[in-house]
Design goal:
The protein is an alpha/beta fold. The chain has a single domain, classed as FAD/NAD(P)-binding domain (3-Layer(bba) Sandwich), CATH 3.50.50.60. An eight-stranded mixed sheet has the order 6-5-14-15-16-13-18-17. The longest helix is centred in the C-terminal third of the chain and has 30 residues. The protein starts with 8 loop residues before the first strand and ends in a 17-residue tail after the last helix. This is 3-hydroxybenzoate 6-hydroxylase.
Length: about 400
């Protein structure tokens, strides 16, 4: 860069997994990043998340794959059980054969640990600066720059803006103005120490217990020292999106008719966190001028494919590659980014909705679900998952080539 050339600058709003990944992706292109976070400190709440091969591919591209692997637990399978009769519905191997097929493993990790793995790299990058306790309230942009104004009236100006500020995104509200769709599905999450986990549920696998209008999930974290517990049910009341403390009594009231084997884990957590979930219908445009959105701000989705964080990581990679491919023409880069990402993220979102229906089937629909995968071979399962786990950073700008395969 000559003395007459000014270094480009990008503002990222939001310090979650997607925001940190976006900051790393942009900084790879020798662009200064200012990351604005409304919380008092950069951190993460929640419990465990699942990382498919596509997520590890993205993490490798970001340069943090080995950090994440060192904190993850690698599973033997993905298993679905019937929560009514405790019979196995389907089991997909996620060991060596999965890694050979998709190029990366399937892992589970505490949300705080994957966040930390990316944060460490961000903190070590001199091009990225933080500002916490900063709540963006207004955005202004012209042909050459974008300015955000915070709750104190302070103004921050850059060449481009990336909103990674979650389901209740201020950036998205400014660009699009649509409302999130509250699903009516409530998710409870907790982490318990292995000593408090029922012995017959200490399984090295994300296990889904699929029940009528409800399901339960458990899997190991932190070297098997802890277990992640998740329960989901269709709420009897009108819900508003948000996160609160949960009630064991409420959980038990929705799971009275399931088999004793999975039911026993409901008494184990000393506390629960309660999420009233929401998603959004896909849109045909989420980039406007020098401003775009990423992760839950772009495509909030239900948890039924365990792909929320994975898709945010993919977003960051594609965004970085689009900036590189367009020579830092941010308007062109953001258009390329959305052209690649909107169809794929929409497919994942729609698939997650359908998987939620499958998980929560009852009556005859439950019987149909339990027969869907009878006799299916490992390779047939992998073929069906190729579109999802076969994503690669190396050819991510080719767009829908992988999403076209089923």
């Amino acid at each position: 860069m000559s003395n007459n050339e000014r270094m480009r600058r990008v503002i990222v709003v939001g310090g979650g997994i997607g925001g940190l990944a976006a900051a790393l992706a942009v900084a790879r292109e020798n662009i200064q990043v200012l990351l604005l976070e409304q919380a008092d400190q950069i951190g993460e709440i929640g419990a465990g998340i699942q990382l498919g091969a596509n997520a590890f591919n993205a993490l490798d591209w970001l340069g943090v794959g080995e950090r994440a692997r060192s904190r993850a637990v690698f599973t033997d399978s993905l298993t679905m059980m019937d929560a009514v009769d405790a019979k196995e519905v389907a089991r997909v191997e996620t060991g060596d054969a999965y890694t050979k097929r998709f190029g990366n493993p399937y892992g589970v990790i505490h949300r705080a640990d994957i966040h930390l793995s990316i944060l460490e790299a961000v903190q070590g990058n001199p091009l990225i600066k933080f500002r916490t306790s900063t709540h963006v309230q207004r955005i202004e942009q012209d042909a050459n720059s974008v300015t955000v104004i915070d709750q104190r009236g302070e103004r921050y100006t850059a060449d481009a803006l990336i909103g990674a500020d979650g389901v209740k995104s201020v950036v998205r509200a400014t660009l699009i103005g649509d409302e999130a769709k509250v699903t009516g599905h409530v998710v409870y999450r907790a982490v318990v120490d292995v000593e408090n986990m029922p012995k017959d549920l200490q399984i090295n696998s994300p296990v889904v217990w699929a029940g009528p209008h409800c399901h339960l999930v458990h899997y190991p974290l932190r070297g098997g020292k802890q277990y992640n517990l998740v329960v989901t049910f269709h709420s009897r009341q009108k819900e508003e999106w948000g996160v609160t403390d949960g009630s064991k009594e409420e959980v038990l009231s929705y799971f009275e008719n399931i088999h004793p084997l999975p039911h026993q884990m409901l008494d184990r957590p000393s506390s629960w966190r309660r999420w009233a979930t929401a998603d959004r219908d896909p849109v045909e445009q989420w980039s406007f001028g020098r401003t775009t959105v990423l992760g839950d701000a772009a495509h909030p989705m239900t948890q039924y494919l365990a792909q929320g964080a994975c898709q945010a990581l993919e977003d960051a990679v594609v965004l970085g590659e689009a900036i590189r491919a367009t020579g830092e023409d941010f308007v062109a880069a953001f258009k390329l980014y959305e052209q690649v990402r909107i169809p794929r993220a929409a497919r994942v979102l729609y698939s997650a909705r359908e998987m939620g229906r499958i998980y929560h089937a009852k009556g005859v629909e439950r019987l149909v679900r339990n027969s869907l995968w009878v006799g299916r071979t490992r390779e047939q399962f992998y073929d069906a998952m190729q579109w999802l786990y076969g994503w690669r950073a190396e050819d991510c700008l080719e767009g829908n080539r992988l999403t076209a395969a089923s």
